[in-house]
């Protein structure tokens, strides 16, 4: 057996990249019996017979998304426009919380530097600087910042998410320097190349992959998130010391260092206001 990674899936067939080659694989029947469906991104062990193979084992996953169905995602590129449309920062903060809930690192992308947006870009950088999240200001249209972005990506699997109408599909097309060989699967199934939707990994560099369809389709706080999970989405809070109460949620509690920092201008008001809104939305949902 040889180790590999599933880079595309369609109708029960899987392309597995292993030892520099790509094999068209089917999983062993045991996976169907145990309802353990292989996912794009899975690390697997396969046996091969020429260009074909069989998936024998699936390694333990670090993460698993359901929309799209991708395993072992390490980071999410959260793409928003600096202008046209104006960035929805409440949505951005929601996605940050969702990412961290799944143990996925958020990376902030602000598009459309080509629109002479220096003032707006500076304001966005100021809002998120204290959070410590990685930020990139780019132009998908002109390609500005894309080489720097690609070079900054560490080994792993990246999924793209963000606001509607900000050029997510265009960014995928810009970053994708290789075309995945899914034609063999379509030919085997007797279907046209574009008639079946599927998810694939685009290899940007060695062991740096981008999911070719936008992820995190749920634009609301995900089920299972707790008030404490929302706090995790605001890492700048943790640099300010301890509140009087260990379980302080920084809303109405007395002697809250976060409220004091906000009133003193040490926390950006947009971030704190969004934090309060997310906590309120969660309380209204009453799922935790």
Summarize the structure.
With 288 residues, the protein is an alpha/beta fold. Helix content is 28%, strand content 27%. Strands 1-2-3-5-4 form a 5-stranded mixed beta barrel. A two-stranded antiparallel ribbon has the order 6-7.
Give a description of the structure:
This protein is of the alpha/beta class and 288 residues long. The protein has three domains: 2-59, Nucleic acid-binding proteins (OB fold (Dihydrolipoamide Acetyltransferase, E2P), Beta Barrel), CATH 2.40.50; 65-211, P-loop containing nucleotide triphosphate hydrolases (Rossmann fold, 3-Layer(aba) Sandwich), CATH 3.40.50.300; 227-285, Orthogonal Bundle (Ribonucleotide Reductase Protein R1, domain 1), CATH 1.10.40. The chain has helices at residues 29-33, 89-101, 118-128, 146-152, 168-175, 183-189, 227-232, 257-263, 269-285; strands at 2-10, 13-18, 21-27, 43-49, 52-58, 64-66, 69-71, 75-81, 105-111, 134-137, 156-162, 199-205, 208-211. The strands form two sheets. The chain has a five-stranded mixed barrel. A two-stranded antiparallel ribbon has the order 6-7.
């Amino acid at each position: 057996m040889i180790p590999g990674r599933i880079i595309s899936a369609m109708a029960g067939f899987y392309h597995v990249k292993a030892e520099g080659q790509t094999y068209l694989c089917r999983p062993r029947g045991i996976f169907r019996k145990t309802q353990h469906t292989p996912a794009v991104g899975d690390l697997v062990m396969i046996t091969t017979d020429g260009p074909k193979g069989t998936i024998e084992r699936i390694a333990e996953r670090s993460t698993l998304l359901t929309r799209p169905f991708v395993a072992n995602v390490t980071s999410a590129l959260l793409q928003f426009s600096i202008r046209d449309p104006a960035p929805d920062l409440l949505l951005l903060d929601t996605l940050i919380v969702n990412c961290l809930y799944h143990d996925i690192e958020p990376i902030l992308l602000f598009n459309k530097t080509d629109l002479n947006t220096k003032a707006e870009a500076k304001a966005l950088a100021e809002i998120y600087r204290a959070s410590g999240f990685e930020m990139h200001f780019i132009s998908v249209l002109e390609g500005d910042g894309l080489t720097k972005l690609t070079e900054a990506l560490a080994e792993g699997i990246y999924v793209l998410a963000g606001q509607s109408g900000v050029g997510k599909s265009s960014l995928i097309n810009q970053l994708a320097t290789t075309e995945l060989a899914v034609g063999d699967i379509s030919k085997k199934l007797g279907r046209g190349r574009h008639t079946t939707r599927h998810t694939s990994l685009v290899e940007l560099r060695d062991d740096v992959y981008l999911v070719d369809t936008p992820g995190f389709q749920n634009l609301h706080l995900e089920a299972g998130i707790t008030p404490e999970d929302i706090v995790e989405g605001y890492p700048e809070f943790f640099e300010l010391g301890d509140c009087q109460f260990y379980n302080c949620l920084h809303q109405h509690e007395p002697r809250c260092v976060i409220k004091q920092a906000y009133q003193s201008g040490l926390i950006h008001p947009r971030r704190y206001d969004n934090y309060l809104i997310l906590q309120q939305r969660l309380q209204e949902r009453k799922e935790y």
